[in-house]
Give the backbone structure.
Amino acid sequence: MNSELDLKPAAVFTSKTRQITLNINGISRGLEVLPYVTLLDALREYLDLTGTKKGCDHGQCGACTVICDDKRILSCLSLAVAKDGAEITTIEGVSTGNDLHPLQQAFIDHDAFQCGYCTPGQICSAIGMLSEGKAKTRADVKELMSGNLCRCGANMSIIDAIMEVKDGGGHE
Amino acid sequence: MNNFDYGAAAELKDAFIQVNENAANAFLAGGTNLIDLLKYNLVKAEKLVDINPLPDYHGIEETSDGKVRLGALLTNADTAYHPLIETNYPLLSRAILAGASAQIRNMATNGGNLLQRTRCYYFYDANVPCNKRNPGSGCSAIPGYNRTMAILGTSEYCIAVFPSDMCVALAALDATVDVSSAEGNRSIAFADFHRLPGNTPHLDNNLQHGELITGITLPKKGFEKNYSYLKLRDRNSYAFALVSVATALDLDGDRIKEARIALGGVAHRPWRVKEAEDLLQNQTATRENFAAAADLILKGAKGFEHNSFKIELAKRAIIRNCMMALHPESQMPGAQPSA
């Protein structure tokens, strides 16, 4: 090991917990977090919203995608303290009562998952992509969904499901 | 991650006071690279100074002399999709959209894009020597698996590449970087912003601690008629470039009035060669002339055990992209080669 990489004793660093408020799925939630807690860990470990998944934890897989202030972002690369006051939608908040979000239903109809681990991130990402309105063609959808990996290989079905919702029921 | 402190800055003056409290304090903007580096313990911060609450630098404005200023805190996505950028600087829009993923482009800021670190795997592996991470320890990439590494401007100390796509377009467009600090303001020409590794590979650029990028200024000339960005990589999307090329042409019929060609993925900074661009001036826009320019751009290129293929790949990419710039409407999503 390089000596420069040995962590200094924690006492050298003097951070304190912060009181923050996150508006998650329409509900205001207060919590106390240290500055280095990511939004992903705040959701999963502090608020028991475990629908959002930790895949790589380094911004490479998209499993942690949530919608923050109307934009799809990676919760693993966001600090919770920096999102104080933000409006956040997670997979737990996309349905309306017992009515699934159209993308949730389309994923079922198209068999767009096997293990399901990437699915919450895929669906939140697709919701964000459709609201951005930049995808015109199937090639655009593939390009703009490339930040969400599926290791089961359900990608074609995922794109089919998204295309169905995007085009209001039609298939390419 | 180490147990760092956090402070939000709503005024520029306060941001400088907070960052100057300690040499290990750092500005936090989009965080897409910094948070990752902190997670790997490659960077340790005493305190992160969150500059997102600053009221300025979140927009795009036209200056009175016809230039366009990109706010440093505007996201890469909002920049790429801004009507003024799509219309007047489509090369920049294309390059930005070839980088990262949609989620990361929604978070990453323009200022931060310039400051991202290399993705050299030996830099990221804290168990092996790396002169960029630990000056004087040696370079593991030179004798290692160096397929993705640089072929131009390397040194015996470092062969890492600078990974940005956006910056390849900014280099081609002759942008300037606007910087503020507690001492005042300065502007840095884009060509002078990033450094070659030399014997100081731990320095990626010429920004000093306590200096903040506040904006990026684009000259009036946007080359909106003939431009192309081509990115070649190991998968079609969401991967760093093996070689990328930004081409901007100002044409009079098939005669080239002005040419700009910048390469990404091949050096420690975006790579431009003035002699090659001068060679194209007043020439016709033909494959043969672009090939001659490509030879000049790649003059002195040096391959290592696993990346010599990049020299020929770069030459072909330059020619292909210059031909694509003649028909920018044919470009594909993700800066892939057009049919």
About this structure: The interface with chain A takes residues 1-6, 8, 28, 31-32, 35-36, 38-39, 41-42, 44, 46-48, 50, 52, 77, 81, 100-104, 106-107, 126-127, 129, 133-134, 137, 236-238, 332-334 of chain B (CB under 8 Å). The radius of gyration of chain B is 20 Å. The CA atoms of residues 161 and 173 of chain B lie 20 Å apart. The first strand of chain B starts at residue 5 and ends at 8.
